[in-house]
Design goal:
Serine Threonine Protein Phosphatase 5, Tetratricopeptide repeat, mainly alpha, 399 residues, 18 helices, elongated, DNA binding
Length: 399
């Protein structure tokens, strides 16, 4: 299947699913029917050509399959008499509405973050269960159970295919899911690869969809800018053998200027509109990094100031840890170590390899090579990412 056809099907997947759920309800069964229609298109269109109305073709095929599935289910439950009562719940209001409602449905508060991510990738991203399982390095059977349970949970809540009344509150969950999808692709937490480009690209694609559908939401714009500015550094983050290259040592000529320009323009236009939220502040910090010609020329005092504002809005321990690094770079390792001591007992940080890695970096900056080596080895023992382990052990060996 060509890349153009694959992109078309992924773009149409949420539109077709939204149309079916809006018409018939039954999110769980409709999602299965859409997946089968997408597979049929992937098999038939390369040989027969793309139909004049690909969306209409998919809706027709998926609707037929949905009817078959519902009839089989009703027969199994001895309720054939209800088949005659199946009726559309109304025509779709529009592709944009359907995709947005679908995103909110996949991020239903009854679901765990892992289930929200899996369901979003399947329903909105158009990825197969096999692809999602491969991306997250889990057995396909495990991912199948996760998605099945997620669909059952949504069904049990009785959620209707409409924009939720708590849209503003649930938007935060939607943004978090998109960010987590991107972040798992950009900095994989497990496995032999530092990056899984397909997941990072899917996170950016979902963020672009959200920004197109909600252009006035400043935090949506902030998230998209953050992802663009972060992904711009991707080509320089790994060496020839897949090893991790820290930002200070990266060849900045490899950074992607188009993504930097787009991200900087987006956050520059968004910040004055207010109110300012965490994603906008993180994007502003990323913009400072990306616009700095060299690591030494980075405006660390400005980054410290932005982190201090960010800490007033969130209690995220990773933000606190990044603030420590910024303070050390702006004022020296002694100040950084003193600040690190004030947060190192946080339950969320205590067992995370990044805490030990930051301590190692600051000890190395201060000249304590023995302490730094011990901390690097401790950090390596805590991470499940093989490239991270190799990088941290190499730092320890160098000392």
């Amino acid at each position: 299947m060509s890349q153009a056809l694959e992109e078309l099907l992924r773009e149409l997947a949420p539109q077709v699913l939204g149309a079916l759920v809006r018409r018939y309800g039954r999110f769980d069964t409709a999602e299965d029917a859409v997946q089968e229609a997408l597979l049929a298109a992937a098999e038939q269109w390369p040989a027969d050509g793309v139909p004049d109305s690909p969306r209409g073709w998919l809706i027709t095929v998926a609707s037929r399959r949905l009817t078959d599935l519902l009839r089989r289910e009703q027969a199994r439950q001895r309720r054939e008499d209800r088949v005659a009562q199946w009726a559309p719940q109304g025509e779709p209001v529009g592709d944009a509405d359907d995709t947005l409602v679908l995103l909110f449905l996949c991020c239903h508060p009854s679901l765990s973050p892992a289930s929200q991510i899996a369901l979003t990738l399947r329903a909105v991203g158009g990825l197969t269960t096999t692809e999602i399982a491969r991306a997250f390095l889990v057995p396909e059977a495990t991912m199948t159970r996760r998605i099945t349970r997620a669909k059952a949970s949504v069904k049990e809540t009785g959620a209707r295919f409409t924009m939720p009344a708590d849209r503003d509150e649930r938007l935060g969950a939607v943004l978090k899911v998109v960010y987590l999808i991107f972040n798992e692709g950009y900095a994989s937490t497990t496995g032999s690869s530092l990056q899984r480009v397909e997941l990072a690209a899917e996170g950016i694609r979902l963020a672009r969809i959200l920004h197109r559908l909600l252009p006035d939401e400043t935090e949506v714009a902030g998230l998209l800018a953050l992802l663009l500015l972060t992904d711009a550094r991707r080509p320089a983050r790994t060496g020839p053998l897949g090893e991790l290259v820290p930002m200070a040592e990266q060849d900045r000529s490899l950074w992607i200027p188009e993504l930097i320009q787009e991200g900087v323009e987006l956050i520059t236009a968004t910040l004055p509109r207010g109110p300012v939220g965490p994603y906008q502040l993180q994007a502003a910090i990323a913009a400072i990094h990306d616009e700095s010609p060299t690591a030494d020329e980075t405006d660390w005092p400005q980054i410290v100031a932005l982190y201090e504002v960010l800490l007033q809005l969130t209690d995220n321990p990773m933000v606190a840890l990044n603030h420590v690094v910024a303070v050390a770079m702006a004022r020296g390792p002694a100040d950084g170590l003193e600040l690190l001591a004030s947060i190192e007992h946080d339950d969320h940080l205590a067992k995370d390899h990044r805490l030990a890695a930051v301590r190692a970096h600051l000890l190395e900056m201060s000249g304590d090579t023995v302490g730094a080596r011990t901390a690097y080895e401790e950090a390596a023992s805590r991470t499940t990412s093989l490239p991270q382990q190799r990088y941290l052990r190499a730092r320890a060996s160098r000392l």
